[in-house]
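During the reporting period the student researcher (J.K.) took over the structure-prediction task from the postdoctoral fellow and processed the backlog of single-chain submissions. One of the processed entries is reproduced below for the supervisory committee.
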Amino acid sequence: MPYFDQFMEQFPHMEVETQKFTRSILILKKYKKKEFLAKAGDVQTAIPYICQGLVRRYYINEKGNTITTSFTSEQGYATDYPSFLNQRPTKYYMECLEPTIVVEMPYEKLQEAYRKFKDSEMYGRLIAEMVLTRETDRVESFLFENAEQRYLNFLETHKHILNRISLSHLASYLGIERQSLSRIRSNLAKK
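J.K. obtained the following structure tokens:
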């Protein structure tokens, strides 16, 4: 399957036996626009790798507002990693913003791979590092950047999805009101 090949391309030096086992545990899933990979209260029992499509992760705050925390597109992992790692309920919703195809690795099978194949631990660590770096970058953007800097950084790092998301979702992701985003965009256009 081409999607399994796409997933496996991340690990070019994986041992042959590990490759065979990994391929055998992968699950292909297809989602329609507005379908959910997970909802608050679900336990993330598999980690989805996005082959095609776009997923928005968000939560609903105490005022009932949806707050976007991430966008994951092709070659990324749409996850609440602590939910996956600790097999506990997530607080997030993961909604497909467009038709999405994912390759999933079930938690139990991944643990089996760790027990059976030494090199699988290294690849698991690489996935964890990728997810952790993305999450840390997001937190640091709120600590060290103003709204305009966050927007410019988003343009630089997520240019490929800019036309695939709504301005409302983008404003929520940046931690600002939509009117503020419009003002930032207008001011930048004048420069």
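The committee noted the following: The chain has two domains: 2-136, 143-191.
J.K. will present the remaining backlog at the next meeting.
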